Amino acid sequence: MSAASNLLSEDQFLCSICLDVFTDPVSTSCGHNFCKNCINEHWNTSDRCQCPMCKEVFNTKPDLRVNTLFSEMVVQFRQSAQQKTSSSEQQESKPGEVPCDVCTGTKLKALKSCLVCLASYCETHLEPHLTASRLKRHQLIDPVENLEDRMCTKHDKPLELFCKTDQTCVCMLCTVLDHKTHDVVPLKEEYEGKKVELKKTEAEIQQMIQKRRLKIQEIKHSVDLSEEDADREKAEGVQVFTDLKESVERGLNELIKTIEEKQKRKEKQAKAFIKELEQEISELKKRSAEVVQVSLSEDHVHFLQSFQYLKAAPPTKDWTEVSVHPPSYEGTVVGSLHQLEETLSREMKKFFDEAELKRVQKFAVDVTLDPDTAYPSLILSADGKQVKHGDVKKKLPKIPKRFSLENYVLGKQCFFSGRFYFEVEVTGKTAWDLGVVRESINRKGFINLSPQDGYWTMLLRKGNVYKAATDPPVSLSLKSRPQKVGVFVDYEEGLVSFYDVDAAALIYSFTGCSFEEKLFPFFSPEYNDVGENPAPLIISPVNQTV
Q1: How far apart are CA 524 and CA 411, in angstroms?
Q2: What is the rounded CA–CA span in Å between residue 113 and residue 122?
Q3: What is the pTM of this model?
């Protein structure tokens, strides 16, 4: 019997009318089992006798008897359930667990909650619900808190449904009274829908969290970059002011040295005069002694003979006009300060030029030459970074974007906003053109290099003649011959500037330009000139450590 009961599930021992373990189970002719009292009460309150499960109608009320075999199986199941319940250890409720509502003193952990009694019970206090016929009909659930919130306050019935119209939980009576015309669904259905919605919300929240984490990383990275920039600027500032301090100290030392040298020269001159005067005094003293000696003689003959032999008077200088004037220091400090000012001015100009070049170098872009625009006599490197003039004009497709008469070529990259910068090595060249052009420039026949025609360029011609290609051109006076030229464009500002990279000096700027089209880098190595201008123009990587 016990083995047979173990093969059956718990649901097979529950009456489909009272939903509790069978009490005096009886079987209908259609094969369904019910508690004897449950089926009799069901038929007594119904107009006709039919099976609650399969709806089979009986013409006469069946005379039902207790199913002895099944009743024994129910007893075995009930005893097994009670043994299983009694075998579990009594545990004291911990924080977060539901305590027994009946326990006094120490609250034990609840095993079940009753939706009828609205109370939770530990193992000991749950026993009446498992044994007493009246209490066995109560609906037990896993232990939960706030049971009162699960009951309809108006009808004192379990909240089993959800009103989507009023967004509230309702009982069965609510659906036929206050919420009769509302959209009502089972709690499980709404629960599952809300779970999906919460899952979506959770995904959105996690996405927002991830975005904010990325933003934190971005901000931290920005702070790190800022710190690096600050350290670099501080180092540069220390270096600049150290150089200025050294310049001031050198100026001060030179001033002191100048004053001291003037004083030493005067002292040397005075010492020479004094020495010469002392020598004359010594000679004069000797003569004075001789004169005194002769003048003391009273022998007329001896006196006259000695007088003839007196030494001639030693030659002496006329010291009447001789004097040592104090050195004049007037203008010494002013002159030194003026020289210091010029030195500091040069140092500061150098610093500002280097700082300006560093600033524009931050906008460096990668530029390569576009072979489809190159004049047929030009030779481009495979990597698109070099161009020089060849003696042979190649046969190339005559396409609209190709220059037809001039030794010009454009970069592949175009720019129509923001700022950009690139550098070109011009070492060994006697002639070249560099700059930027607008997209709609004339590429056929003779071309006039001027801003009016869409060209903002600088050029070198034979004889070290540098010019800005304005209309008319502006001659440029350069202290040194550039080996590398930087080209910077600020589209919105309307600015095109050229720099001598090695000297960190601004060569020339086109200002107030009006850009309304795409801009392209522009290059011309000019003619080979019978081997005098063979070197290529080389687009070089930007080294931002000048």
Answers
A1: 11
A2: 9
A3: 0.49
The pLDDT value given to residue 247:
82
Residue 401 DSSP SS3 = coil
SS3 186: strand
Q: Which tokens is 201 given? A: 């919300």
CATH architecture of the domain 371-540 equals Sandwich (2.60)
Q: Strands across the sheet with 168-170, in order? A: 168-170, 161-163, 184-186
Which residue type occupies 125?
H
CATH match for 1-87 among 3.30.420.40, 3.30.465.10, 3.30.40.10, 3.30.70.380: 3.30.40.10
Q: What stretches in the chain show pLDDT beneath 70?
A: 1-11, 81-91, 93, 311-314, 544-546
Closest CA to 513 of 487, 490, 495: 495
pLDDT the model gives residue 277: 92
For the segment 426-484, what is each residue's pLDDT rounded down to a tens digit? 999 999 999 999 999 999 989 999 999 999 999 999 989 999 999 899 999 998 999 99
Closest CA relative to residue 476, chosen from 494, 461, 492, 496: 461
Q: What's the confidence (pLDDT) of residue 5?
A: 43
> In which residue are the tokens 């009769």 written?
180
* Torsion on CA atoms 93, 96, 97, 101, rounded to nearest 10: 80
Q: Which amino acid is at 361?
A: Q
Q: Which helix (H) or strand (E) holds 387?
A: strand 386-389
181-211: burial string, b at 16+ Cβ within 10 Å, e else: eeebeeeeebeeeeeeeeeeeeeeeeeeeee
Spatial separation of the C-alpha atoms in residues 319 and 317, rounded to whole Å: 6
List all residues 6 or more positions away from 425 whose beta carbon is below 8 Å from its beta carbon.
483, 484, 537, 538, 539, 540
How far, in Å, CA of 80 to CA of 401, rounded?
95
Helix (H, G, I), strand (E, B) or coil at 523: strand
Rg (alpha carbons) of the chain, rounded to whole number: 57
pLDDT tens digits, one per residue of 294-330? 888 888 888 888 887 776 666 778 888 888 777 777 7
